Amino acid sequence: MLLLLSICSSGRKAIAAQDALATQINQIFSTLANDKFPGVAVLVRKDGRTAFERGYGVRDLRSFAKIDPQTNFRLASCTKQFTAMSIMLLVHDGKLRYDDNLLSMTASFATTTISPTSSPISPPTVKPSPFAIC
Hints:
Largest sheet: 2 strands, antiparallel
Radius of gyration: 22 Å
């Protein structure tokens, strides 16, 4: 009986700590919780688990559809600069070379081919490669 009470007590402490974390994060982003302005989606992961996720504001100024944790943001080409800078930092730290081959680092990449589509707007189709490296 004592063990069961101890487990329940530690479980309550963990829930209370998670609630406190959620309250702190919510205070940071609560100014963005407006139903008429663009906002953000927030995800906090700790020890491989989702500790907090919530959307604030709207994703579309025409329909005022709210942001939720599953909102898909269309970033267009905004991530290219971050990818390039990340590569440059890895090269600077000696963890990567500019002439390294992607296939030598990621075996799963060698098992796919990207076929362009006829429409310039549609994303490319990814098909399994007949030349997969096992």
